[in-house]
Amino acid sequence: MLEHLTQPGAASLALDKTGGEPMPVVVFEVNPGESLLLDISAIRHIAADLRRGAGFRLMGLARGGVLRTPLLSADMCFERDDRMLCRCDYPPEMEILQRRDTFRAELRLGMEVGVVLRDRESGLSAQGDLRDLSLQGCLVELSASAMTALMSNAAVFELELFFPNGTRFVVRGSPRHQKADAQRGLVKVGFVFAERSAEDDRRLWFMVREIEREAARMAGNTRTPLAPSQLFQGNKNEEHGSVSRRQTHDYATAMTRRLAPTAAYLDNQILALRQGGMVDAVQLSRHADRLLALQDEDREALLFAVQCLDKETLLVRHSLGVSVHLLDFARGEKMPHELCKALAAAGLVHDLGKALLPRDLLEMQFLNASQYRWLQGHVALITQRLESCRWLASSVVEAVVRDVNERLDGHGYPHGRGADDLPELARLASVVDVSDVMARLRPGRRPWSAEAIYGHLHDSPHQFDRRWVERYRAHFGRWPVGTLVRYQGGLLAWVRRLDDQGLPVEVQISRGSAFPGADPEQLLEGGALERLGEPVASLPAPG
User: Fold this and answer.
1) Beta-strand relationship, 114-119 and 157-162
2) Based on C-alpha coordinates, what's the Rg of the chain?
3) Which residues contact 213 (CB under 8 A, 6 or more apart)?
4) What is the pLDDT of residues 166-193, one digit of tens each?
5) What is the mean pLDDT of residues 57-77?
6) How far is CA 168 from CA 165, 247, 336, in A?
7) If you average pLDDT over residues 284-304, what whole number do you get?
8) CA 231 to chain CA mean position, Å
9) Which residues, in sequence order, are bridge partners of residue 169?
10) How confident is the model over 430-468, as pLDDT tens digits?
């Protein structure tokens, strides 16, 4: 066993008293049964510790397992030919630890190791939590929204681990498997490491060992008490000491928090579609019911919450925006309950076929004829994946999914249907869809204000049914809930509630043009709002 440690770069030395990281050492000479002579020239700064009797272990990798000596101590440290050498007793035995190339050390509750996942090509990044670690890879827990944003194209990512004591470790890895937790809106992604150096392996051995050791200490599974691992000690308020997925969740309202699980469902559904799956009929039904219940409880709070999910991807925000506004509009028209549910469900998934298109195509500011035809394929892609949703009426799917991009003059897509072929639901849905699209930041296009959107729809009777345009405006009003408005004097605010005449009775002051935050002191209502008078203009949202 010691023979393996005499190979170049094979041995490491770890001081016992600090739980320190393994350091490179050369097993220079082996005298069986008597002593070892170690070359510590690369780490000569530890000679003083060794002379004072600090214990240490030698360790290395062999046959897929980790070899480790019992605790040793130096007999003497001396210099010879510009080398710093250390003599110690010959170890009476060697330990072969678990096969660390496949063994994964799992983190227990309370052991927080943050992970920043980066796609160097796109410049995108996301924060997550480390769940286990091995020499070969790791398991990272991410929010589903971060997963869908990052995983469309990249095959290799940079992972940076942040331990509580400030230790950082960077490695490249490829995703190999993932498992979604729809209830919590999370995804666990398994990564396989690539391009590791001998130094990387040394550090990984140390981190795997310390995670296992700390987990055992916390569980009380040892005969004698263990000292806390140094990796998990330190100031968690340091700059990088508490990087974690949990820091990214900050919702502006209670309703936004209650809407977030449906956003997470959409993220998980997108992942399933990218893996060749179908639309989950049961989950779609549950989340449509959820939207109906939230709308029953407080329709204006739900409309405002849609504007507050700024951390979600554009696709998820648009899907929720169409679904919630379509539902609210349908209920305003006193449509039957089952039809309202079907419209909400169809709105949730109507655009998810875009998740199956290349990201580069979706980010183009201008499309040529060929690229535009390619984009149109998103309709067929999602329609095919809805075949398992037999509870969803085909007439609703055709209107909201298949025909929502068609226009009265026949210049829409994917089939160029004209006015004679478009049912009332399709005409209604196209108004809702375009209103939401134009209100959002898109590649090469700035968001439009509510007034500009109404004007465009009204002035385009060849494309949009004017009856539905006028009913839509009458239902949501001149200052729709979730709209950014400006008052006389320049005050900017987000509309949260309207009175019976369609005037704002509760607004949230905007700091610049940022999305609504969670500060209740920014609310204005009652006399303070009345003194401001009616808004003078609506403004485009940030995105």
Assistant:
1) antiparallel
2) 30
3) 19, 226, 229
4) 888 999 999 988 888 766 778 899 999 9
5) 83
6) 9, 18, 57
7) 95
8) 25
9) 161
10) 999 999 999 998 888 899 999 999 999 999 999 999 999
Say whether pLDDT at 398 is over 70. Answer: yes
3-class DSSP string for 270-296: HHHHHCCCCCCHHHHHHHHHHHHHHHH
Q: CB–CB of 74/86 below 8 Å?
A: yes
- For residue 258, give every residue at least 6 positions away whose Cβ sits within 8 Å of its Cβ, in sequence order, or none: 294, 305
Interval 471-485: pLDDT, tens: 999 999 999 999 999
Strands 137-143 and 186-194: antiparallel
Residue-averaged pLDDT of the chain: 87
Are 313 and 149 within 8 A, CB to CB? yes
DSSP string, 102-157: T--EEPPTT---EEEEEETTTTEEEEEEEEEE-SSEEEEEEEHHHHHHHTTT-S-E
User: Does residue 418 or residue 250 have the better pLDDT?
Assistant: 418
Name the DSSP class of 516. P
Give how far the C-alpha of residue 495 lies from the chain's centroid of Cα atoms, to the nearest Å.
Answer: 29
In whole angstroms, give the CA distance from residue 524 to residue 506.
6
| Complete domains list, the chain, with CATH | 2-96 (2.30.110.10), 105-245 (2.40.10.220), 250-476 (1.10.3210.10), 484-539 (no CATH)
> Can you give the length of the chain in residues?
543
